[in-house]
Amino acid sequence: MGKVVMYSSVSADGFIADENDQPGPLFDWLTSGDVPLDDSGALKVSQQSYDYTRQYWDQIGVTIVGRHVFDLTDGWDGKPPSGIDHVVVVTHRPAPEGWNPEAPFHFVDGVKAAVTKAQELAGDRVVEVAAGDVGGQVLAAGLVDEVRMDVVPAVFGSGKRCFGSVNAQHLLENPDVVQGDRVLHLRYQVRR
């Protein structure tokens, strides 16, 4: 089985979006460089960010998101983002009415079921868990192997917390650190 990685771009004070679900400058680093990150040409980063991010993105087989993110993105119109094979949506509700049943999206109830389904689909590839409430729940359940954060030099003051409403202490190992342009890439192994 592939490892489970909680991931997000995050403000210096630990927020993944403002109170209105807007990421503000959190993704500016994805368009501030001169090295194309994907085939679209829309994403251009520094060489350091490319070396760090591209290698990680190529390992992802499945992404787990909550229903809130799914609804905010309109389910990416049925096509998983960034070339990912499948998306597992944690929700208590069924797929939206009229949803294409052939789309590689899987709707499950609960984070443990989501991780089980995602690992089944991903095989030995990485299962990525979006930060926020669902990511925090997966961490609290002891199912996260690694935490990756792209920390940007911005302070939100309030908003959607990176680890959601997790209120218990979780220890991480020392970080691997890569300095990009307007971003600090951090990778922590979760201490067991």
UniProtKB/TrEMBL annotation:
Membrane-spanning residues: none
One Pfam family from the record: RibD_C
InterPro entries, per this entry?
DHFR-like_dom_sf (IPR024072), RibDG_C (IPR002734)
Tell me which residues make up the Bacterial bifunctional deaminase-reductase C-terminal domain: 4-171
> What is the protein's name according to its record?
Dihydrofolate reductase family protein
According to its UniProt entry, this protein's organism is Amycolatopsis halotolerans
